[in-house]
Amino acid sequence: MRLSLVAFAVIVTLTTRAETVPSYQGMVPVTLAKTYDKDKDVSQYWASEKLDGIRALWNGKFLHTRSGKRIYAPHWFTNSLPKIALDGELWAGRGQFHVVQRTVLDKVPSDSAWRNIFFVVFDLPNKSGNYKIRYEELNNILNIKNQTHIIPIQQKALTSDGDLMAFLSQIENLGGEGVMLRELNSPYLSGRNNSLLKLKSYRDQEARVIGYKQGKGRLKGKIGSILVRTEDNLEFYIGSGLTDEQRSSPPKLGTVVTFKYSGVTQNGIPRFARLLRIRNE
């Protein structure tokens, strides 16, 4: 990609890839979703609402984010969790991502704030068997625990693409983000794969901040756009969607952001990319 050189532009880039995920003993591997495409047989998947929260893994001792950062939850929140690995989402309801982020990423947990958080559990990463078997065991475990803030994700069987699109419409009309599809006959697989798919009315993706470009005009002295790199090593700028506060204090280098877009160019670059949120987990 050609970069126009502007006298007062300041572009800072990372010299090394920032995508490396830290690992340590006890870190639970995580399944990451691919985007749904119409060649999939939806009868081989279960559908659930895509929750607008922070992915969280329980390793039997403490919660951590998918990148390995420890989550400092109050003791009462985790003391009834089983001594086995759980994969789920910390969630506060539709449209409440900001509540989750400011609550669960605080190293000094606020007891009152955590009262608004649910741990919605998707899967049992260390259990063998297909998803139907793991989901049944997951429900049995959580039913025994009988905690109102720890709940299994609700799954829906599908028979056709029409079922899927009707479910997506229902979720979005309720203010939800989209739909997740889990392959029934798949073992738990770490990394991005087809056992977990996501579907929304718009496309979105994650990228890592690797640089900045200074603003012009009314944005002089602030950040005009952020330079990002996707998992596919595509680099481009995102300016749309940045608030004035974010332009004055932009996300740090290495931060993961989510953006939405409409199609791609011939070079594979997302078109009309717009920042959705900064993911500090």
TrEMBL record:
Membrane-crossing residue ranges in chain numbering: none
Leading EC class: ligase
Enzyme Commission number: 6.5.1.1
Known cofactor(s): a divalent metal cation
Domain DNA ligase OB-like: 214-279
Catalysed reactions, as listed in the record: ATP + (deoxyribonucleotide)n-3'-hydroxyl + 5'-phospho-(deoxyribonucleotide)m = (deoxyribonucleotide)n+m + AMP + diphosphate
SUPFAM superfamilies recorded: DNA ligase/mRNA capping enzyme, catalytic domain (SSF56091), Nucleic acid-binding proteins (SSF50249)
Residue ranges constituting the ATP-dependent DNA ligase family profile domain according to the UniProt record: 75-200
GO molecular function ontology, one term from the record: DNA ligase (ATP) activity
Span of the signal peptide: 1-18
Stated name of the protein: DNA ligase
